[in-house]
Sequence to fold (322 residues):
Amino acid sequence: MTLASHIANQDVELLDIHPVAGNIGAEVRNISLSAELDDAVFRQIETALVKYKVLFFRQQSHLTDESHQAFGARFGNIVAHPTVPAPQGTRLFELDASKGGGRADSWHTDVTFVEAFPKISILRGVTIPEYGGDTVWANTARAYEQLPESLKRLADSLRAIHSNNYDYGAERIVTEEHRLNHHKNVFVSSVWEAEHPLVHVHPVSGERALLLGHFVKKLVGLNSRESAQIFDLLQNRVIRLENTVRWQWQQDDVVIWDNRSTQHYAVNDYGDQPRVVRRVTVEGEPAVGIDGSRSRTVTRPQLAGNEPLSANQHTDVNYAAS
Fold:
């Protein structure tokens, strides 16, 4: 039995779990998330997360910024975003639609422009619009599994440069000026770039997954046109409808996803309604390709004295809200 099939067959009997879609996503009912969860229950949440990729939890109104972060710390070291200021006294990443940067309406895996990109994200619905504002996730492991062997061999051989300084308007029909300014002045206030294997091995399940999304700048060794064509070919495999799950948010929902085997997209269809969600991000590790090669840093900001700024150094700072 492979490690992946072992994970898939592990028992989660302590959880009231209900699959939401055929290939990704499950709702976990009748549970109150907290840092004090029983160890056995928490271990089954970890197992279910690797199996289903995305877990949905309704009615978590008891969570505050503090308890949300404390729960996230059960999964590992929590880190703030490398460039976007966190709400005062926290390491949360806040998406507020009224502040320019709150509409993540492009397919991506979180923060892949750093070498050790996050392993887990935990998103909490703080203010949910009356309609619209769903989020969609895609299973990048199944996308790889479903490739024909010829495309697998091609993907296996490639590496990609990921950057936060990507073409923000490339896939958006309309780009409002205040959102573009937020991208330029906040999100790209410092530029980070990392090189990752295009196919990486999940450190828990052993599954192979495509590592793509909108932060991909180019494929190593190929020109821009070739990079774009191969990117589109493989990215379109990731986001096929049968490979996705769509979640209709309710107030106080919490969603946890395995950032190592998913991409996601926030649907921008709620107009001027307020929408605020806050994310706890759990530190990951460099991706490992099928040949054992690892991710590497290409570009990162410099401190005074020309000392490189590490992601951990940056996230130890508390910022005023953006």
